[in-house]
Amino acid sequence: MSDCPVPARATISVLTTESIIDPLLDALDEQQLDELARRISTRRVVRVEARLLAALRADSAVLHRDGLTDHAEPVALVTFSTLDNDYDPVCWDLNAVARHASGAKTPVDYGGTDVEGALRDYSSFTCPVAGSRLVVDLSTGRFTVRGAWEPG
Fold this sequence. Notes:
Blueprint: H1 12-15, H2 18-26, H3 30-65, E1 75-83, E2 91-100, E3 105-109, H4 114-126, E4 133-137, E5 143-146
Antiparallel strand pairs: 1-2, 1-4, 2-3, 4-5
């Protein structure tokens, strides 16, 4: 056994304590705080998009592999509409349309899947507008929000 001390390891719990973070935030001016908030928000959205895309790709691969659609082509795009009721904020609906390369469509219910949690997180970041659609291109990873008046 060595007498050398074990180096301390930085952990998330240590880095997020008020004693460390608050003095750093207090030292920033409003412009710096705004920039920090923007950077954090951007990184958060990117992570949620990556999680949602991975879940959609995995689920779509299962749809294709297990023959759960009437179409031979794999899913190319997934389109979500908005869900709007009088009690909750507008969010992306768990019932979506999987679109195949041929243009054929397969209705999909993502309730109870890994997509559900990621989609709810994504809804909280994107604040969808009633009647809009979210189109996720599974090959490019591109997320596009279209208004109710746009084709597609």
